[in-house]
Amino acid sequence: MMAYRRVALIGLGLIASSISHAIRRAGLPVTVTGHARTGATREEARRLGLGEIHDTAAGAVRGADLVILCVPVGAMAGVMEEIAPALEPGATVSDVGSVKGSVIAAIRPLLPEGVHFVPGHPLAGTEHSGPAAGFAALFDNRWCVLTPPADTDPRAVAALEAFWQALGANVEVMDAEHHDLVLAVTSHVPHLIAYTMVGVADDLSRVTESEVIKYSAAGFRDFTRIAASDPTMWRDVFLNNKEATLDILGRFTEELFALQRAIRLGDGEHLRAYFTRTRAIRRGIIDAGQDTAAPDFGRAAQPAPAG
Amino acid sequence: MMAYRRVALIGLGLIASSISHAIRRAGLPVTVTGHARTGATREEARRLGLGEIHDTAAGAVRGADLVILCVPVGAMAGVMEEIAPALEPGATVSDVGSVKGSVIAAIRPLLPEGVHFVPGHPLAGTEHSGPAAGFAALFDNRWCVLTPPADTDPRAVAALEAFWQALGANVEVMDAEHHDLVLAVTSHVPHLIAYTMVGVADDLSRVTESEVIKYSAAGFRDFTRIAASDPTMWRDVFLNNKEATLDILGRFTEELFALQRAIRLGDGEHLRAYFTRTRAIRRGIIDAGQDTAAPDFGRAAQPAPAG
Ligand SMILES: NC(=O)c1ccc[n+]([C@@H]2O[C@H](COP(=O)([O-])OP(=O)(O)OC[C@H]3O[C@@H](n4cnc5c(N)ncnc54)[C@H](OP(=O)(O)O)[C@@H]3O)[C@@H](O)[C@H]2O)c1
Ligand SMILES: NC(=O)c1ccc[n+]([C@@H]2O[C@H](COP(=O)([O-])OP(=O)(O)OC[C@H]3O[C@@H](n4cnc5c(N)ncnc54)[C@H](OP(=O)(O)O)[C@@H]3O)[C@@H](O)[C@H]2O)c1
């Protein structure tokens, strides 16, 4: 049985919109309320029927037993300050931020007495943003990581866990510091590298942009999807997961230099051995249902739609 | 009208197999012959009906008016030595190698008098290899780059161009050195970076492999497809396109260090500006029909098949 009857979404972008769609799809007996900073976003959310959209954050959270902060990581504290006075005793505050340590550090001091805080991060997204980008299936078979501080009421955690499962996700609980390291590896550094590679291609004068675009199917293209993600969201991720990002980045450049050296010296054995090792992880990801085994993700077989 | 009546494929992996399927799909009045080094590959090619499979390379090329070398870049010279005595005067030798400068340097001295040489590279592939991985649509709407040396007979180039167009590809002619630089940007360095990132993830003791796999959908997963490509093929690419790869890699690490520094110093403006710039290229790739605009390549909407 769902513990919540009124769920408030603060920030109405891709993630909040997908939560709203997924609640409706699941048929949960829940009223969804919402608020976004700008009028245009609120209007769009109303048009999309995402829920009862309020002009103030405080209005949206009043009476809610679950409040999910769906704004960029660097905006969490400001939003929390705004809603704190309107929160109901016994309500749960959660979030969907891609970094957990810094969000916890920013939110906890602002929590009113008697309000639970269960930070979360659904590991599901696309390169698109804004309310129109959301869809009900976004969380299906994806993981949602909860990182409750040690003194959190286990019932509040269990209730949020059931909520995410109803939305299609699998839930895992871990501590925030470990989350931030795991995500540095599986998400943050990959995004930084993809952005860098696309930036380099964009910047070369000897190879034109139209050549890069034309010949992108040879590998480059796979990077451009994640390098098209929202700049504000990603700025905030890197500023807020600085330590783990720099740590993994250090490992990355160390390994890259070793491969670079092998290329320079013509050490084919080193290269081949390295490239062989990396295939097992791909296999594991497909077996775990986190990607499709279709060649080229099945893209090659279907011509790309125009536009 | 197709200039060729007998096309020999030397090496029977993903690319050769796809050429054979695409010839059949196009209904070209052409006999396909083929040869692969190992008996098992030849057997598989026979089972797949890829053409008249010969036990020797010389046998496959005898009487052919087009011979396409479909082996790893480092194996081109050896194969060319083997077939040279059996080539027909007036025949065209081509290849599909991912590097062009070094292949030309290796092949040209071995060309018999009266045989044309039109090097080529279809910019289409998947992460799978071997004859069973081939399919007729692989080249559809993809580019095939031809890099004929300056003294090549234009009729030989035009005939090969028509051949690739019949297989579904668009053809572009450029010089080999420029090809190798363009491919370093759009393919070779992206592959090296993807291999490195997957290697780093595989190597961390603080984050387990099962965690990496579980949480890969957050971005990492996009890298693993290209990092699952054939190790031998890629070893040969890097050994043979050393100069351009190291050149672009130098640019990449320079930019990466600048972003790393911005993270360390908390320079959010630098990060946001960089991440904004890279979105235009993605848009261009989608508009050019080289990728799909479906979120997450359309993967998210369809659950991944098992296996
Ligand atoms: N996209 C992903 O792949 C993904 C995956 C998992 C988690 N997340 C996390 O989910 C959160 C939201 O991401 P999203 O993809 O849904 O973003 P989005 O589509 O860009 O939407 C962001 C929302 O936050 C609001 N917002 C932005 N800056 C704000 C500020 N300074 N103060 C108040 N509101 C502000 C925006 O309001 P306006 O429209 O009114 O400006 C918008 O409604 C982020 O913390 C992100 O780290 C994202
Ligand atoms: N895969 C791509 O994405 C892609 C895209 C464009 C171009 N290319 C280029 O296409 C060529 C073939 O790639 P592919 O993907 O088709 O490879 P593949 O599926 O791995 O097949 C390679 C073929 O070459 C043969 N071969 C390997 N080493 C050899 C050697 N030392 N001597 C003789 N034959 C040898 C193999 O024979 P056995 O099976 O008998 O060992 C096999 O038949 C490469 O030059 C590659 O750079 C690849």
TrEMBL record, chains A, B:
NCBIfam families (UniProt xref): PRK07502.1
EC number assigned by the record: 1.3.1.12
Cited Gene3D superfamilies: 6-phosphogluconate dehydrogenase C-terminal like domain (1.10.3660.10), NAD(P)-binding Rossmann-like Domain (3.40.50.720)
Record-stated family: Belongs to the prephenate/arogenate dehydrogenase family.
InterPro entries the record matches: 6-PGluconate_DH-like_C_sf, NAD(P)-bd_dom_sf, PDH_C, PDH_N, Preph/Arog_dehydrog, Prephen_DH
Pathway noted in the entry: Amino-acid biosynthesis; L-tyrosine biosynthesis; (4-hydroxyphenyl)pyruvate from prephenate (NAD(+) route): step 1/1
Catalysed reaction, written as an equation: prephenate + NAD(+) = 3-(4-hydroxyphenyl)pyruvate + CO2 + NADH
Transmembrane segments annotated in the record for this chain: none
Residue span, Prephenate/arogenate dehydrogenase domain: 5-293
GO molecular function, one term: prephenate dehydrogenase (NAD+) activity
Biological processes annotated in GO: tyrosine biosynthetic process
Entry keywords, A to Z: Amino-acid biosynthesis, Aromatic amino acid biosynthesis, NAD, Oxidoreductase, Tyrosine biosynthesis
Record protein name field: prephenate dehydrogenase
Matching Pfam families: PDH_C, PDH_N
